[in-house]
Design a protein that fits this description.
This protein is of the alpha+beta class. It folds into two domains: about 5-125, MutM-like, N-terminal (N-terminal domain of MutM-like DNA repair proteins, Alpha-Beta Barrel), CATH 3.20.190.10; about 145-300, Helicase, Ruva Protein, domain 3, CATH 1.10.8. The protein contains eight helices and eleven strands. It has helices spanning about 5-15, 40-45, 145-150, 160-165, 175-185, 195-215, 280-285, 285-300, and strands at about 25-30, 35, 50-60, 60-65, 70-75, 80-85, 95-100, 105-110, 115-120, 255-260, 265-270. Helix 5 packs across helix 6 (about 195-215). It binds a DNA duplex (16 and 16 nucleotides) through loops.
Length: about 300
DNA sequence: AGGGCACCTCGGGCGC
DNA sequence: TGCGCCCGAGGTGCCC
């Protein structure tokens, strides 16, 4: 659920809250979260006395920088951070607590217990999992159209599973893949090697436009909040395909359909996103769709 | 390589 | 109407 826009929103919020705070003590209620080191006592001892400097992001991973240490954190489905006072009641599913010297705490909550944390000496996090094999960062300067073409070239994989593969491009999850493919007018079961260059360009622009708009909106609300400051994002109101099964497509009016692609719930407009078997029909009647897509893209990227 | 499942919990939907 | 069970939700890793 937390994809790039949600993780970026958490990063920005945490970056206003925790730099300068010094860890006095760490409580680990669920050792499963800790991947490295996996011994809670070692994990706590390494962090105690250290001070948060900044919070950065790589794909869907948060990098919490301390003096000399980097805590790499993945929220997976439902991981959440919040800053609390020491005497605030501890809510259910609170698995890790970083007690600060100023009477406040950073708490990690995770109902599904899927999240992970890796602790490294700063700089060493890039050589090992989970950061060592990540793909292009889509909102960075390295994500040029040429780099995108190289990353997806010669692949016969379905485009949706490919876009979900974090070793190719980072940050896209099920929601924003469906949104980007809908915006680009591309069916999720098309394979990369069947996409024409013009379609690849539409997709490239759609990925950037979708993620950029979602970051601006503070992500899609997954009932996450930081420091009890309420609902996080507003982008869920702007979704055009994801979660809109049975509702009319805003471009053409056909009803959004739900299926399964690569084991994921998938939402498409069967008119705007022609399947692999009727691409010839799509080629025969490209004009209205292409113009509509271009208008939408031009509106979003500027 | 790509598909399928496991990981985990909650809540919604459905059946009785 | 109420209770209880089953399954779906999804990011990633691992196995085949």
């Amino acid at each position: 659920m937390p994809e790039l826009p949600e993780v970026e929103t958490v990063r920005r919020t945490l970056n206003t809250l925790i730099p300068g705070k010094t860890i006095r003590h760490v409580t680990v209620n669920l050792p499963r979260i800790l991947q490295k080191p996996d011994d809670p006592a070692v994990f706590a001892a390494m962090l105690e006395g250290h001070t948060f400097q900044a919070v950065e992001r790589r794909g869907k991973f948060l990098r919490l920088l301390l003096d000399g240490l980097t805590l790499v954190s993945h929220l997976r489905m439902e991981g959440r951070y919040g800053v609390y006072r020491d005497d605030d009641p501890v809510e259910a599913h609170t698995h890790i607590i970083f007690h600060f010297t100023d009477g406040t705490q950073l708490r990690y909550k995770d109902v599904r217990q899927f999240g992970t944390m890796h602790l490294f000496a700063t700089g060493e996090e890039w050589q090992d999992p989970p950061l060592n094999k990540l793909g292009l960062e889509p909102l960075s300067e390295e994500f040029t159209f040429e780099a995108f073409l190289r990353a997806i070239s010669k692949r016969s994989t379905k485009i949706k599973p490919m876009l979900l593969n974090q070793e190719i491009i980072v940050g896209l999850g099920n929601i924003y893949v469906d949104e980007a493919l809908h915006l680009a007018g591309i069916h999720p079961e098309r394979t990369a090697d069947t996409l024409k260059k013009a379609e690849k360009e539409l997709l490239y622009k759609a990925i950037i436009a979708t993620l950029r708009a979602a970051v601006e909106a503070g992500g899609s609300s997954v009932k996450s909040y930081v420091n009890g400051q309420g609902e996080m994002g507003m982008f869920q109101h702007l979704l055009k395909a994801y979660g809109r099964t049975g509702e009319p497509c805003e471009t053409c009016g056909r009803l959004i359909e739900k299926s399964v692609v690569g084991g994921r719930g998938t939402h498409i407009c069967p008119n705007c996103q022609k399947g692999p078997k009727n691409t010839s029909r799509a080629r025969a009647l490209p004009a209205p769709k292409s113009n509509a897509v271009k208008r939408r893209l031009d509106g979003k990227t500027k």
